[in-house]
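Q: Sequence in, structure out?
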Amino acid sequence: MSINISTSSAIFRWRPTCWLRVSGEDAASFLQGQFTNDLRGLAQERAVYGLWLNVKGKVLADSFVLRESENSEFWIGSYFSPATVVRERLESHVIADDVTIEDVTDAWAGVSVLGEAAGELLRHPSNAGSGFVFRGRRERGGSIECVYPIAAGEPAWLAAVASATGEISIEEMARRRVATGIPAIPADVGSGDLPNEAALEGDAISYTKGCYLGQEVMARLKSMGQVRRLSILGKWRNLFVSRPLHRTPGRGHGTVGSPPEPQDQEGRRSGEAAAR
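A: Exactly. Output:
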């Protein structure tokens, strides 16, 4: 495989916090009734991004859902949300469904391809072998994820891309994510938050797919047109992790999520925060 590599391209090696295999005759209908986004989109896309909510519409976890060819096997993967949370959330709603959920997180690894190299991969899809290649959520400009079984090793084409780009650290990857305003779940948006408070409704919510857990709350929020709190990206002076945001002395109006980056020359820090 030959792709054009620019100086803006980079890779980031990572391990998923969640990689579940979901199988069974009822897997498709079961997941469609639990996930916030429409899994019928898997007919056109390699992966669909969405959320797992509780009955009050609060965010428990996020993930991508992928499908293995045309069979009844699905995969659920997340950057930050724990496998135990997603699995428990799903298993608590399996009643008479023919659905099996297996946690194989420890056996899988991933590589994010960023910058122009990601765009090239989108235009010229690669054979992932025994793994998956899909559009990620690392940067607003686009990223590509390659997730593969550790036992199989990195695909050969990915090794070629890696050798032609720079590899960034976990700190740099977090800085890029925060700089483009993408929340980490559950660090920035969790069980006390609604998706709309983090402006996730455009990427993660379907208002036309039908029923799913938390759907009634999402429909009500859509009709209301606003929420009382928003997750914001900005620069603050002398702000530290988990410190409340204040507009008046002694009165909290929000909290900080993702750790702010180091101070800039003006003594300000960038980070994710939820403010009312």
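The radius of gyration is 19 Å.
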